[in-house]
Write a structure and sequence with these properties.
alpha/beta, 12% strand, Aspartate Aminotransferase, domain 1, 14 helices, 42% helix, binds pyridoxal-5'-phosphate, Aspartate Aminotransferase, domain 2, four-stranded antiparallel β-sheet
Length: 499
Amino acid sequence: MELKEQEPRDPRDPRIMNQEKMKGSTFPTVLRSALEHALQFLEGLETNSVRPMASLPDLRRRLTKPLPDNPTDAKQVLDELMASTEGGIMGNAGGLFFAWAIGGTLPVALAADWLTSTWNQNAALSDCSPAAAVTEEVCGMWLKELLGLPSSASFALVSGCQMAHTTCLAAACNGLLARYGWDHELDGLASAAPRIRVLSSGQRHGSIDRSVRLLGMGSRCVVELAAGENGSLAPVTLNEALAEYSDGPVIVVLQAGDLNIGAYDPFSELIPLAHLWGAWVHIDGAFGLWAAASPTHRHLLAGAEQADSWATDGHKWLNVPYDSGYAFAAHSEAHRNSMSYRASYLTHHADARDQIDWNPEWSRRGRGFATYAALHHLGKTGVADLIQRCCSHAQSLLVQIGALPGAELVWKSSVNRGLVRFLDRRADTTLADHNRWTDTLISAVAETGEAFFSGTTWRGQRCMRVSVLNWQTDEDDVSRAVAAIGRILEQGHAMPDGT
Ligand SMILES: *Cc1c(COP(=O)(O)O)cnc(C)c1O
């Protein structure tokens, strides 16, 4: 074969000129521009509408264009992106956002996240990025200490609580089925496999059902148990179910803080009970596990350390940017068996922690840097303060909103959330009227742009949910939100859609 002589590099070749130019000047230009845009956005959080003002048609009109045939200058692309998305960004980075379960981001975590993207490490193997691997080792150690979990537990930094459930439940399948002599990794959940049941209360989050589906267990394996008046699972209810399904492997999913009322299951009673029947206990503590970091709330998690696996989030209460979740397993062997993979082209060292042995992803970002920065910055007292502050602002919001004429406090939890509703004060009104009026109020508050809450149906009643997860929320934000709701209630039935 004849070797083709390489063409000499012509420095006047426009492609080379372009590339040289990009290396030399594009990074400073676009990164400085991004920094300016970011700072402007952050400053605007106090004054701009929390609710996105741009409609979907607006955004489609601005963003949709034919795929360009040719390159566009990087700075121009960035400027256009800013202009096209303006008004389409939800203000959840600020302190006036109280909907769903969405956190903000600490400045130090955001900065570390920028560096993570700059370094662009592939955190699959320690060999690809030793710093990413060791940072995650430390995150695992710190998180276990902070959340009161056994120091021997294995862990994985994943994209969110959904994937933390998936990781933990994969480990549960491995561990439980091994006891029945079934190799879950080799034979999966074929029809001859022992049928796994998942026992959980109706308060569980839908991400449990999705993990169960993703893992091939099928949602029919979930046995829903009735929660008690306080939203938590009673030992006698669990015991009856454990007895009924004692002929096969069982996973019990318990709740550390549910979305509506922040209910905690009584772990110190339920976990030993489940273990008597040989079940694997998994705890969903997406935000609620963080109560363990606060001395005044820690009692809610008494006994939780006895579980077999735990799932939580960094992007909710720790205020690190999306996406960041944490999975922990008491049985590291089952965890590792369910994830690990070996191939000739992958390198491993005996003293390294390769993330691919614990994580469901292959290539992934260096997710540990932002978590490490947040924990280093806050320390134990800083996290405790963050948790306590959010709880106290949530309770203050609930009490003050509940005291407004025409409002009713439905549930004030001991953590960072609760429910209120609004009463239709015309004569002879029914539950349906109150439900409609509550939804009207939720929209009207969002309309003002001053604060943002979301709704939920709880025990048949439409409610407005109050959730505080942002480090930025302060007393002024609480007063501003209450005042905005107060003004709407004063207008009362004069409102167009309230009549
Ligand atoms: C948010 C949430 C989840 C899902 O977590 P993601 O991080 O969105 O995947 C699961 N359980 C509870 C209780 C939650 O609040």
